[in-house]
Structure of Ribosomal protein L11 methyltransferase:
Amino acid sequence: MKWKKFTLTTTTQAVDLISSMFDDIGIEGIEIEDNVPLTEKETKGMFIDILPELPPDEGVARISFYLDDDADVADYLRRVEEGLDELSPFADLGARTITASETEDKDWINNWKQYFKPFTVDDILIKPTWETIPEEHKDKLLVQIDPGTAFGTGMHETTQLCIRQLKKYVNRDTTVLDVGTGSGILGITALKLGAKEVWGTDLDENAINAVRENLEANSIPEDRFHVLQGNIIDDVSVKEWAGYGKYDVAVANILADVIILLVDEIPAHLKKGGIFITSGIIDMKEEAVKEAFGRCPELEVVEITYQGEWVSVTARRK
C-alpha cells in the first residue's frame, strides 16, 4: 500500500491550533517540522547529548499528515480547508499551502530490526531475539535483547563501555542499581555475569514491558530484576523504593548532564566501597562530569575508559 502525504506550510504560532483541528477531523500521526529550539524541559530525559544546530527560526512550520488509499482524500482536504478558514481569525496561518506526495507503506515499528545483528563485547554475545546464534560465537555468554520501543540494543559504544566495567565488578553476591534501564540490557548482562539481584528505574513506561520481555527471553525470573517507572533524582518515592546503602554496583548510561545530577544522589544508595559506573558522556562533556565527581566528597574516581568519542567514568564510594 502507498500512503498519500500532505504537507501544510503554516506558522509556528498556529501549530497547536492546527494540530487540534486535525485531531477533531480524524487525522492522526502528524509530523511537525520547524526550527524552534527545544527547551531544557523538553530535552530532559531525552537520549540526546548534542542537539543539532538549527537554522534561524523564521516562524515557519510544516505539518504533514498521511491518508491511505481507502480514505476519501477530497473530503479530508475539504474539511482541512474549512478548519483553516475557521482558525484564520484567531492566528496567523502563514502561507497555508498544501503539497502532496506519496510514500511507501512501511512497518515503522519493526523496520529497524534489519540493522540490529548479533555482535560481541569481548566474550559476551549480544543478539536480538529473532536471530540465531552464529556458529563461531556459541561458546560465548549469551544475552538476548529485543528493545521494542525502549532505548537500548547494546550496539552503542556507551553501553559497551558499561558492560566492560560490569565485567570487572560484578560477582555472584552483587546487587545492582540500574538507573535509566531502558531495555534492561545492562541489568540483564549483570545477572548473566552472576549478579544476585537488580533494581532498575526509567522515565519511560515502555521500559517496564521491555525489561520483562527480555527477562523471559533470557530465562531469568522476574523476581531477580525489579523495575519502576520514575525519576530517582527528584522523586522521594522512587528513592525509597530503590533503598539506601544496599547496592554493590550502580550503573547509569544516560546523558552527561543527568550523570552530573546523579553524582549527588547515587552515593546514598551504595554500600561503602560500592562502585558507580557511568557512561553516555560525549568527550566534550568529560571535564564537566569529572568536575562533578571531584566535588562529591563521597565518591572517588577509580577509572576512566574510552571508546570512540564516548567516555565512561567509574567511581567508588568512600
User: Anything to note?
Assistant: The CA atoms of residues 257 and 287 lie 12 Å apart. The first strand starts at residue 2 and ends at 11. Residues 120-315 form a domain with the Rossmann fold fold (CATH 3.40.50.150).
